[in-house]
């Protein structure tokens, strides 16, 4: 059904970059927050790489991961050690940037994803959202997608329930549990390598990679465990 194996009864969708075009809003907010930090730290300790934040940095260290994991992962990749107060300050600066853009520009859902959600609902495929973002509820609401979703696991659930963030499978496993199905009966839809890794680690029945960036992303998704890679969910709908 809908491009998925017959045993799949539940669809677990990541949100930013899968259903809504907010991955770039996150990525821009991160760039502004990290670049302000890097510029200010111009006289860093030896071995620190203080060059500006790049799209590659986002994809490798931040994309799909909970907010604080993203800060820690990126700083570690640059050889920068800071205490928790600094980690939290960068995270807060990023969130302020993200919320400001959201308030200014709103949120748009990918038309192909909305078509897929409607087709899924019509076909009786049950729907949950599994996102690392603490802004998941607000983004779903702003995009007009809340009513499609039976359960939501988000960045707040991850903190409250002490789950490990993606690339660990915990948040997806919690999604399947809330939906009352085994991982083998659920499909994971992801645009981040960390999320594809989470789907593969949880032994989900099918892992769909959505390549929104091009370049080597599709190849990297396959290597991370995606069963199929498409550039839009539309590609899974009957022609
Ligand atoms: O800062 P938030 O809204 O809690 O989001 C955390 C992460 O959520 C993920 O969904 C995004 O892919 C990341 O870019 C983002 O950093």
TrEMBL record:
<keyword id="KW-0597">Phosphoprotein</keyword>
<keyword id="KW-0413">Isomerase</keyword>
<protein>
    <recommendedName>
        <fullName>Beta-phosphoglucomutase</fullName>
        <ecNumber>5.4.2.6</ecNumber>
    </recommendedName>
</protein>
<keyword id="KW-0119">Carbohydrate metabolism</keyword>
<dbReference type="InterPro" id="IPR023198">
    <property type="entry name" value="PGP-like_dom2"/>
</dbReference>
<dbReference type="InterPro" id="IPR010976">
    <property type="entry name" value="B-phosphoglucomutase_hydrolase"/>
</dbReference>
<dbReference type="InterPro" id="IPR051600">
    <property type="entry name" value="Beta-PGM-like"/>
</dbReference>
<dbReference type="InterPro" id="IPR006439">
    <property type="entry name" value="HAD-SF_hydro_IA"/>
</dbReference>
<dbReference type="InterPro" id="IPR036412">
    <property type="entry name" value="HAD-like_sf"/>
</dbReference>
<keyword id="KW-0460">Magnesium</keyword>
<keyword id="KW-0378">Hydrolase</keyword>
<comment type="similarity">
    <text>Belongs to the HAD-like hydrolase superfamily. CbbY/CbbZ/Gph/YieH family.</text>
</comment>
<dbReference type="GO" id="GO:0016787">
    <property type="term" value="F:hydrolase activity"/>
</dbReference>
<dbReference type="InterPro" id="IPR023214">
    <property type="entry name" value="HAD_sf"/>
</dbReference>
<keyword id="KW-0479">Metal-binding</keyword>
<dbReference type="Pfam" id="PF00702">
    <property type="entry name" value="Hydrolase"/>
</dbReference>
